[in-house]
Design goal:
This protein has six helices and five strands. It has helices at residues 3-18, 33-45, 55-63, 88-99, 117-124, 129-171; strands at residues 22-27, 48-51, 78-83, 104-110, 113-116. The longest helix is centred in the C-terminal third of the chain and has 43 residues, at 129-171. The model has no long low-confidence stretch (mean pLDDT 82). Forms part of the ribosomal stalk, playing a central role in the interaction of the ribosome with GTP-bound translation factors.
Length: 172
């Protein structure tokens, strides 16, 4: 690779990692092309990307990006998965690692916080931004539903009492 190509690769990595909510670094030794393609497709559906880059170039790119120093993770054949949603890349990577023993999560970063493998797996158990938004909308909607049912209850109670009196009068 020539210097110009290396600069271009570093610049593209910096651009990609700048907007990342989280970054996952993993070993991919012995992973089949089909399995790796499956990982790429899953991460892409979640709005992220998977890149394989030379360790030295990845370390250079990370120096210029405002994320935690995770350069020590780049040893051996590594792959980088990242997404704008902080939970998406760790969630997909952790699920993929469970199915494929050859995919080993080394760690990652979420902003200025460096994560070890357990930290990435813990982040994977958290709900995504869309799930949190849905829960929040449900919580906001819940009180309005409760108020409406409370307002309807007295009227329904009165109607039942009047109906019971009417039936009692007819029977007598």
């Amino acid at each position: 690779m020539e210097r110009a190509e290396k600069r271009e690769v570093v610049a593209s990595l910096q651009e990609a990692l700048t907007g990342a909510g989280s970054i996952v670094v993993a070993h991919n030794t012995g992973l089949t092309v089909a399995a790796f393609t499956d990982l790429r497709v899953q991460v892409k559906k979640a709005g992220g990307k998977v890149k394989v880059a030379k360790n030295r170039l990845a370390k250079l790119a990370l120096k210029e990006v405002d994320v935690a120093d995770i350069s020590d993770l780049f040893t051996g054949p590594t792959v980088i998965a990242y997404a704008e949603d902080p939970v998406a890349a760790p969630k997909i990577a952790a699920a993929f690692a469970e199915k494929n023993q050859k995919f080993v999560i080394l760690g990652g970063a979420m902003g200025q916080t460096a994560l070890d493998a357990d930290g990435v797996k813990a982040l994977a158990t958290m709900p995504s931004l869309d799930e949190l938004r849905a829960k929040l909308a449900g919580l906001v909607k819940q009180p309005a539903t409760n108020i409406a049912s409370i307002l309807v209850q007295p009227g329904a109670g009165i109607a039942r009492v009047l109906k019971a009196h009417a039936e009692k009068s007819e029977a007598a």
